[in-house]
Amino acid sequence: MSTHILASLPQRKKFKHHAEKMKMPFLNFLTLPAVKFTYIFLLIKTSAFSVKKNGTGSKQLQRRDKSNFISLARVAPYFSEETIILEDNELKKISHENNKCIKAIKDHKYLNNPIENVFKIDNKGHITEMKNKDNIYMHTKRLFKNVGYELCKKILTFNITVTKELCEFDTYNNYILYINYLKDVKIEMIKDALEIRKFFFVKLPRSFDLDESVATFTENDYNVLKGKLENDFIKFDFSDIILNQVCPKAYNKKNELFDEENSNENLIIEKSENKIKFALITSHTLSEILIFPSNIKDVQYVKEYKNLKNIVKLKKSTKSEYTEWAQWSPCYNTCTDNFAYKCRQNKCMNEDESFCDKHFLLKFQECPQTQCQKWLEGISGEKKKK
Prior knowledge:
This protein has about 375 residues and is an alpha+beta fold. It has two domains: about 5-45 and about 75-110 and about 325-385, no CATH class; about 115-320, no CATH class. About 30% of the residues lie in helices and about 25% in strands. The chain has 15 helices and 15 strands. The protein has helices spanning about 5, 20-30, 35-45, 70-75, 100-105, 135-145, 165, 185-195, 240-245, 250-255, 265-270, 285-290, 300, 355-360, 370-385; strands at about 60, 85, 90-95, 115-125, 155-160, 175-180, 200-205, 220-225, 230, 235, 275-280, 310-320, 330-335, 340-345, 360-365. The strands form three sheets. Strands 1, 4, 5, 6, 7, 8, 9, 10, 11 and 12 form a ten-stranded antiparallel β-sheet that branches. Strands 13-14-15 form a three-stranded antiparallel β-sheet, covered by helices on one side. The radius of gyration is 28 Å and the shape is elongated. InterPro entries: TSP1_rpt_sf.
């Protein structure tokens, strides 16, 4: 946000707390062209919204802070005013140029972008045939014959689409895969099964047929993961798989393929696989709970399930070390309106300035207006002396 936009905000008249009292003065205030533009810009900049782009079907979620904070829109009308702070037991007048909250906004291009994205993942259940002894099921079963339990021929396949939203700044994010369990069983049964049995994920070649293709995977090609129960979903840490098998290596350190000039879908398709397909194989017990096959023939089989299709989603979330909060700023007192506020930002310590700029977080909290009273009393005392 440039300095001239912030500086264009005029001196505010008295800002009342109750909506009915402030309605008309506030509307008159917004009729000023520069102020109206700035106010709308600030509201848009700080809003969390859902996006659907490049066919991914992603839903962005803003993590909620439970503390008692106030919106930027509440504070913005005072950004052109001088304020009073208490520093080293001394009251000081601060210009808006030296206000840490205002300076933080001016120094960053982005503000309060969502720190979580959730992507819906296209998926399909399948029961493999037993005719081909070298298909993926028979091959995987032979490879892992010593795991202590038999693998099931029901397989879940899903496609992850390579997009900017998914892969940008991937090394600074965690990726969690969620698969809802379909069978209505006791929670204890699911927990017991998850303690003992694991899930085998493998990346599939293009045009791979689960029944007819000859599988040549080695044990190293499989990602063997434990699942954890969370509400109606079983979740998996998918971070390593995303970094090493989904997002192109070029994206891990640099995001040059995601520059605005090169952001068209054709470039992504040319330089990487646009869709990455995975297969999931697990035990009979977990397959019965988790995987609903699309090619089911026995109608009676359906009655044991509460849904007819799996829900698979992938959550991308900024790592916690980049979203931790720094210390609060001093309380800035606007004595004309008896209103005071403070702010703090996230501690993004990273060598990649573009990442920290895009993930800059700032929140405000209202302060007690005690310093204004002391300041006004001091001014009154000086006048009496004169």
